[in-house]
């Protein structure tokens, strides 16, 4: 599994036609802080809360949203911790190309880090 910054992931999403971003934060976080906006590059955002149910339920929901396990998946949460756990579980379930957004959605690793702090598209 690869670790990348939000800026690196944004570049990858722009260049990989089949890539999917999986946001594993909570509905409250999505409502209060925002979500990545991918519509302008034609990529899919899958919103699946990590820890809302069992690991089996998470993988089932992921398999429903992204059935092809060869699809490149990028996982994001607030700071890169939950997304790392979700990506690890996805690897165990057979997904092949996985990247964790190590600096997350918010700037928890210093000024100018994270999806939102880098000025990447947010809805």
Task: Give keywords.
single chain; 123 residues; alpha/beta
Question: Could you explain the architecture of this structure?
Answer:
This protein has a five-stranded parallel beta sheet. Helices cover 33% and strands 15% of the residues. By secondary structure, it is α/β, with parallel strands linked by helices. The radius of gyration is 13 Å and the shape is globular. The protein is built from four helices and five strands; from the N terminus they run E-H-E-H-E-H-E-H-E. The model has no long low-confidence stretch (mean pLDDT 94). The protein has helices at residues 6-15, 27-33, 55-65, 81-92; strands at 2-4, 20-23, 44-47, 73-76, 98-101.
**Mean residue pLDDT:** 94
> Whole-Å distance between the termini?
28 Å
The helix fraction, in percent, is 25-40%
Class of secondary structure makeup: alpha/beta
The rounded Rg comes to 13 Å
Main sheet? Answer: 5 strands, parallel
Query: Poorly predicted ranges (pLDDT <50, ≥5 residues)?
Result: none
Order of helices and strands: EHEHEHEHE
Number of strands: 5
Shape: globular
Strand order of the largest sheet: 1-5-4-2-3
Number of helices: 4
Q: How much of the sequence is in beta strands?
A: 15-25%
Outline the secondary-structure elements.
Layout: E1 2-4, H1 6-15, E2 20-23, H2 27-33, E3 44-47, H3 55-65, E4 73-76, H4 81-92, E5 98-101
Parallel strand pairs: 1-5, 2-3, 2-4, 4-5
